[in-house]
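Progress narrative, work stream C.
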Amino acid sequence: MVMIMLFKWTDYDISMDFVETWLDDEAIRVTGLDDGFRDFYEYWANENIPGTNYWCKVVSENDKPFAVITIGKDKENFIFMEFVIAPGKRNQGKGTLILKELLKASKFILGQEIKSAEAVIFPSNPASQKAFEKAGFKFSHADEDGDALYYIYN
């Protein structure tokens, strides 16, 4: 079976400085990556086993990187942790397309099939909420402080 992919998926490494340039004020406000993406990645990569229970993928279109997504795994449940799209590519539906492709081709992209997942999204990030909903995630609940919204995928 030949799988036609819209995007190229590459493992992130800390030499990919261009990811830091995507962290404008808007991205920091809706992600909480105040200390930068590299620090976030290094923390989680040291706490997990990249390629086994933690993935960080750079997404490219026409060989131009424009998004990065991190996913963790707890038992059989995948957890979408951070998802940043370059400023010039936001609000074009790319987030939804990335999520749909990842869910459909997770065995190829991650080496494991995503059967269930969750995403935690800040209430101040309606674009992310919309992208995850269009990709098949359903709102589950808000935390008791209302600071985070939980979405699930089955």
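Work stream C, second folded protein:
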Amino acid sequence: MNTTNRFKEIVGIIGGMGPDATNYFTQLLVSHCQPYTKKDQDHIPFFVYNNPQIPDRSEFILGQSIERPIPELIRSGKLLIKMG
């Protein structure tokens, strides 16, 4: 059995800023790769960190909230880096 992974990197996705949107995005990622795959092992490896604790970006941009989303986005990104 050949277990060699042809991908050198793992994609990291920060999700949870709309959990349904995160699910939709991962479905799109898998379905758009489908024409280029012959078996499950040909798909792109990825981690999804579904973090619904990120403060609302839209409210912040519109001035309706003073809670900044950037610190939590950075923390989420660092967590993905630790995961590889």
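The helical segments are 19-33, 57-61, 70-83. No further action is required on this item.
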